[in-house]
Amino acid sequence: MKLFEQKKPPLVAMVFSDTVDGNIFQIINSIYDGAEAIGIQLDHVKNEYKTREELKRLVDACNGLPIYVTAYKGGENAELTYDQCADQLLLMQELGCELLDVPGDFFGKGENGMSFDEDIVRRQKELIELIHSRGGYVLMSCHHSVELSADEIISHAKAQVERGADVIKIVAKCESREKMIEHISVINTLKKELGKPFLYLTSGPREFAGLLRQIGPTFGVCMYLCVAEHSKGSTPLQPKLSAIKAVRDNMIF
Asked: Which residues have a Cβ under 8 Å from the Cβ of 66 and sit 6 or more positions away?
């Protein structure tokens, strides 16, 4: 996977405008600040802009950098079907995007971002196999709404591996310093046992969840998600690209 060809965890700059032109401006700023990949969130983009021609302009603006894509069934996609969201991912793959996000509760909501319904899991596996057959890679994501135990988190990660994901993504709740230390231990366990690249993020108070997003790659997290600038629509806990680049560049990996 082109995304992981370099020695250090890559800096993936997320863009979040609801228009193609707005995202292109964010991509340009991200590239100037040293982004090594771009994260395009189609669930933020108004559906009127999701034509092949407009999305090709968006992909072309990334100037050959690896592209990670989400098309969650929320935001601008809230009224679409899961199949329509999947079609957005497949179109972006056709246009050259290499890493596509298939949530662990895609095709039907589950608890804490993971569904274990047999029919839903089957449909997820079929979509993942289709993406693989077309030469792409899949990141499976799961966002926790409450704090889970270490064993539960590790179980979710291993379930994603079993479904065929190439990259595992967990967004866990972190509400205290004690929980932050526990999350570092979970990262260490995943590094030893998972056998796949994994993106382990946390949500919660900045002094705990935000810090873990900055230091996680030191312990084995595969990439940084960051933003060139914070504004309406960005994720406040994602570090600023120019700042986290200075940190990453001076860390020993």
From this structure: 1, 2, 3, 10, 36, 37, 38, 98, 99
Number of neighbours of residue 18 by Cβ within 10 angstroms: 17
Does 112 map to a domain? no
Q: Could you report the per-residue pLDDT of 17-46, keeping only the tens digit for each?
A: 999 999 999 999 999 999 999 999 999 999
Asked whether residue 195 is domain-assigned, the answer is no
On the question of pLDDT at 13 being above 90, the answer is: yes
Q: Which domain holds residue 35?
A: 8-97+223-253
Q: Is residue 30 part of a domain?
A: yes
**How many distinct structural domains can be found in the chain?**
1
CA–CA gap between residue 50 and residue 69 (Å, rounded): 13
Is 12 within 8 Å of 39 (Cβ atoms)? yes
Instruction: Using the structure block, give the residue that is written with the tokens 């950098």.
Output: 65
